[in-house]
Amino acid sequence: MEDKRKLYIETYGCQMNFSDSQIVGSIMTDHNFETTGNIEEADLIFVNTCSIRDNAEKRVRARLREFNRYKKQKPGLIIGILGCMAERLREQLISEEKVVDVIVGPDAYRDLPRLLSIAETGQKAINVILSADETYADINPVRLDSNGISAYISIMRGCENFCSYCVVPYTRGKERSRDPQTIVDEARSLFGQGYREVTLLGQNVNSYKWENTGFAGLIGMVAEVNPQLRVRFATSHPKDLSDVLLQTMAAHPNICRSIHLPLQSGSNRILRLMNRKYDRDWYMQRIEAIRTYLPGCAISTDIITGFSSETDEDHHDTLEMMRTAAYDYAFMFKYSERPGTLAHKKYPDDVPEEVKSSRLKEIIDLQQELSHKSNRADVGKTYEVLAESTSKKSGMELSGRNSQNKVVVFPKKNYKPGDYVKVKINACTTATLKGEAID
Ligand code: SAH
Ligand code: SF4
Ligand code: F3S
Questions:
Q1: Which of 20, 40, 76, 182 is deepest in the core (most CB within 10 A)?
Q2: Minimum-distance ligand to the CA of 203?
């Protein structure tokens, strides 16, 4: 047999992209490639890209410039752009970035081997056709960079919510769900291989639907694979977070006590412009439902600051909602206008850059305070921690997470990654809990 050629994949963006890179890895290993973590030895470089904000795209563009060097060293080297930038920019990327040979959108990965054979003849190859039914359900992902303990399972693709600022509905296409049996089988096989945590992925998991199975039904089935398998999910849209899901979580201790519920803005006026389809009251009532059904559940969020026409008053509404929801963690972003979105057409990007920056700083400062407070409240408590790896800072410590998704570091003793360990928390920073294993 001829030697396998080497594929190096670099991934940007959301968890969905990381999961897609594993699907791509699987398709390519079926076509006489093996993956490598060393770019220097690659015959093929794939960059799986993100378009969510302008700076995400700029980062990839800068990286592409660096690839010229590898191409000079190895003339046969092929470079492919995958994912959301490929979908959004299409041929434009080929004309602007000479180093690129192949452009492939998120629903066309099965076509990669054919596109590659075109590129090998020196031509440029492109497929950015979006699909109404592709879910890659039958493809068994190659677990790249895996710690062997936690894995992603993609349960649906696409998004049709059309939040006015967001590029995802254009880059990922129609929403579609994956056959639940294939999801449960994947979870079972991962558990058999020693994995102890799966994260079910979709842009809006609460609208998962396959015949009579909704998301609550699906997550219940996955949780029943084994009580020793932790189940997480991302992302929930506040408009669709149902009581039935919260009840299902309450009934399964292995579904983690952690919900990511992106707020985006605390102002009703801005939420309407964003087309988020909920208001402050609805959102707060969802937070209260979480607190009622799942005491001790962590809540995290995403916030965009400086959306079109946002005033100081709107900004203060956001700060106030953050305090009321008392988030354990947040991802916070400056609004970045995306070409082709509704906001781009209808709402001018009129908040000055300095104002965006100073509001972002206030939001980050507040969240630091909230995260620290949340962590301080955990000191003295005992949590079951799934150990994941030897701590980066010290070989004598293990690092893992509790059900609330907080990172917990503790002295190793005889424990190893993959073990569930009861840890009593005795100190914290804004980012981590520290403790001691108790037997
Ligand atoms: N589907 C998920 C979010 C995916 S994108 C959801 O709806 O919750 C992740 C986050 O990026 C979003 O929640 C939002 O906070 C942020 N984001 C999306 N578009 C953005 C834009 N144009 N500018 C700044 N942040 C954006
Ligand atoms: Fe974007 Fe909204 Fe869809 Fe999330 S739900 S991916 S923010 S359009
Ligand atoms: Fe980015 Fe596409 Fe995910 S735009 S956030 S990689 S869906």
A1: 20
A2: 1
